[in-house]
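F.,

This is the one I mentioned.
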């Protein structure tokens, strides 16, 4: 977590404001949610790994946490305030989120997310709108070198359904997809994790192979195992315990079957990742892969239409990568997935934005039915270094310093400064109380161009002594003329 110093603060504020205005023009109303949430809000939407990154604690027997993202909170906000209003509901937000991650380049434990959520609408139109808006934001910030990666969770989930992966395995694979699609190392790490969770024992393999040669119904398998157990000279206390052992044995066999399916799915994801590339070339190869697995190609068709719309809005196809193995750490996505990447100042790949469709999340966080929804979030701290420096034209007024001669002149000095600020000038009161000459020296060091000396003579005549810190000249000015006299002289840097 970082302290934010004036320059960075100004930049963050300016960028957030530019994005806010752009999104507001597109119909997205700005909202905010508390930084502190009930932890179970994120349990509903997160994978185990992300859950471990929560800053969670107990207070007065309540499980609370600092928000690690906005989406689940905005879904809660939607349920509390918008669910009875006509859709689409377009909301935007900007604020800090907290994740207990290993800090690294561009990776902080507190960062600022700027994003949108769109509730309702026809998925095809809504998906296109949010992807186009994400690109429009980059264009408005003059960030031109970036890569838009598009994926769809439907392809991997369809395969997992076809393989009859149990919920736990399917969920795990979907959350590991991010790691798998990132790099060969990521794939290796995911493979090692799956190996640990679905280990293979040689005895199990032999038995499964044998059972597979002559498949039996579940009852038949149970009977077979039970009879095998009757034939061996181990003492079983009763019929029930023999049955229990048979059940457990079969559960283990089922698990090794899951293992084979999990690794078949992993292989499929590997192939999908291998085919990732720019449209239109990759469409036909992906089509062939999907048909070789007899998988429905509608997610691919959806992406094809989306690509056409995004291209029509001015994004070059060479900037687009189709990656059907794209996965994101959280498990709530149900359709489109996308990320935007750009090289940082040293050329390393940086993810600027992530988003997608999550049609079940509103229900998962307490809604009575599903609500179609999609959204994205940018990391503000990652955007700022990529914005051309000239975009941050800082208009700063050199302040006028009002120096009270003694402490009893403070009331008049404050009134003079307040009057100048009301007139739009930057005016500070010297609070050091160390007299006029030290006050003038400090004012010059502070970068001021003018100081106003106010003592008894001045407040009695309702004037000030205007001191030019560069030339050393002094003149008496009437208080009512002061703003006008200064306005013509104060330089803006
Ligand atoms: P996510 O909620 O993980 O999709 O993140 C959305 C965006 O927030 C990412 O694309 C990044 O730009 C940014 N982001 C995510 N995690 C961090 C982090 N630890 N530090 C800085 N920025 C981050």
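My design for it:
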């Amino acid at each position: 977590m970082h302290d934010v110093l004036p320059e960075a603060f100004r930049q963050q504020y300016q960028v957030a404001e530019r994005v806010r205005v752009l999104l507001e023009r597109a119909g997205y109303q700005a909202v905010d949610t508390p930084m502190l949430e009930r932890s179970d809000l994120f349990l509903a939407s997160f994978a185990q790994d992300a859950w471990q990154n929560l800053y969670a604690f107990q207070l007065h027997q309540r499980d609370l946490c600092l928000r690690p993202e906005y989406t689940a909170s905005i879904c809660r906000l939607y349920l509390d305030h918008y669910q009875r209003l006509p859709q689409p509901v377009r909301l935007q937000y900007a604020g800090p989120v907290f994740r207990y991650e290993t800090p690294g380049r561009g990776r902080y434990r507190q960062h600022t997310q700027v994003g949108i959520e769109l509730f309702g609408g026809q998925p095809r139109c809504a998906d296109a709108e949010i992807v186009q808006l994400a690109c429009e934001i980059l264009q408005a910030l003059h960030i031109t070198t970036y890569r838009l990666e598009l994926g769809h969770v439907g392809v991997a989930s369809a395969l997992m359904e076809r393989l009859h992966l149990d919920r736990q395995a399917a969920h795990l694979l979907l959350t590991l997809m991010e790691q798998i699609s990132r790099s060969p190392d990521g794939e290796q790490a995911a493979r090692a994790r799956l190996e640990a969770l679905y280990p293979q024992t040689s005895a199990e393999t032999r038995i499964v192979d044998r059972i597979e040669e002559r498949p039996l119904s579940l009852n038949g398998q149970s009977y077979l195992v039970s009879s095998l157990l009757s034939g061996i000279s181990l003492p079983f206390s009763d019929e029930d315990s023999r049955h229990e052992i048979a059940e457990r044995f079969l559960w283990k066999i089922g698990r090794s079957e899951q293992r084979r399916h999990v690794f078949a799915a992993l292989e499929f994801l590997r192939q999908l990742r291998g085919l990732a590339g720019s449209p239109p070339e990759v469409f036909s190869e992906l089509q062939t892969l999907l048909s070789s697995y007899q998988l429905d190609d509608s997610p691919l068709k959806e992406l094809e239409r989306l690509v056409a719309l995004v291209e029509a809005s001015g994004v070059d196809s060479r900037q687009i990568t189709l990656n059907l193995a794209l996965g994101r750490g959280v498990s709530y996505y149900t359709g489109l997935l996308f990320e935007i990447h750009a090289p940082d100042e040293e050329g390393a790949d940086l993810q600027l934005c992530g988003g997608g469709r999550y049609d079940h999340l509103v229900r998962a966080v307490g809604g009575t039915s599903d609500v179609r929804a999609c959204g994205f979030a940018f990391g503000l701290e990652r955007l700022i270094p990529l914005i051309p420096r000239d975009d941050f034209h800082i208009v700063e007024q050199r302040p006028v310093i009002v120096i009270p001669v003694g402490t009893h002149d403070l009331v008049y000095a404050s009134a003079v400064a307040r009057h100048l600020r009301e007139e739009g000038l930057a005016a500070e009161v010297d609070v050091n109380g160390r007299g006029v000459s030290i006050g003038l020296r400090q004012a010059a060091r502070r970068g001021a161009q003018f100081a106003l000396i106010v003592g008894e003579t001045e407040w009695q005549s309702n004037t000030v002594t205007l001191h030019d810190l560069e030339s050393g000249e002094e003149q008496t000015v009437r208080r009512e003329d002061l703003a006008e006299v200064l306005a013509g002289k104060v330089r803006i840097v």
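The radius of gyration is 32 Å.

Talk soon.
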